[in-house]
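pinned: reference chain
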Amino acid sequence: MNDLQIALLLVGGGGIAAMIAYNWWQDYRLRKQATERFGDNREDPLLRTEHPNRSAGRAEPGFATDTLTHWPESASQLDQTDTGDSQPDVALDNTLQQGVEKRLFADFIIRFDEPKDANTWKPLVDGLDQVNRKRIIYSASAQAGVDGMDVLWFKAMPFSGTALALRASLQIANRKGPLSSIEFSEVLAKLRRFAEEHNADIEFPEMKEVVSRAETIDMAAAALDTLLGLHCLLPESVPENLEAERLTEAGWVQKGHQWILQDGQGQLASMVVHKAPGKKLLSFNIDVPNAHDPVKALGDIVTVCHSLNSEFGAPLMDDSGRTLSTQAIEGIYQQLIERVRNLTDSGFPPGSPAARTLFS
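pinned: its structure tokens
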């Protein structure tokens, strides 16, 4: 036997040994996974001698009932979904996540290879809820939602049952500025680490595209953002209880050091009292994008200030300390109406969820 034959025998023998070792390892790994999922049962079911429970009803083959077999087209159809009384249903036990404004968020989607409960992602949600005051909204779904499939997303915390997908929606712009590449990378690194720890896949958008979109939105928001400030100069001789009485009669409510004007739809304006020797300055503020009716808020401020002026001699002034005439107030009205129209035309009506998100 020459050297070539010996070498071939060694190579062949080594290959066979490697195949045997690989097959053994594969068998061991699959058995281990089966044991983890279904428990350790070494009994051969074909040799089982005891009789099954004959009192149990016959069960037809089907899909697992811990998720919806037929997903409703909208949230309004959830109460029409028949899932049975004995089985918990993710769609009935959890709160739907309200639609996230796609223009203002970038989605990172983590898909698990096995169903996970809320304890899996709770540390992530608690430790990564924002970056530079830009919110991260977490949603969970009982379906993986691959290949563009639409699924129902529920609030990730609290969440009852199990999910196959977790979505982290990162806000890309607010009054702190646009999302930066550093902020994007920070969030992505933490989400990647989480996915690796749970043997999950992660899907995320292109960083350059998201950052560019964030900068564009921030520039548009800067041109639309408006904080309107008006001031009423009240003599120091006016008693505080009388001042508070007049504000309360006009619908203002004191909360801490601020006075708030609101209605059934939310806050309209705020006011802070600044004291100085011999006078008090009532500083009113309208956060135009966040007030659902800025024009009404302006009207209420002008009304209460005119009332205070008539009773106590408290003129209405602008931020520069100039007393506002009737003509000047009318000009402010027209500018405010134009700004409200611009916000609405841009898709961010004052007081809307989108506006409150962008101008947070």
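why pinned: Confidence is low (pLDDT under 50) at residues 43-87. The two ends are 84 Å apart (CA to CA).
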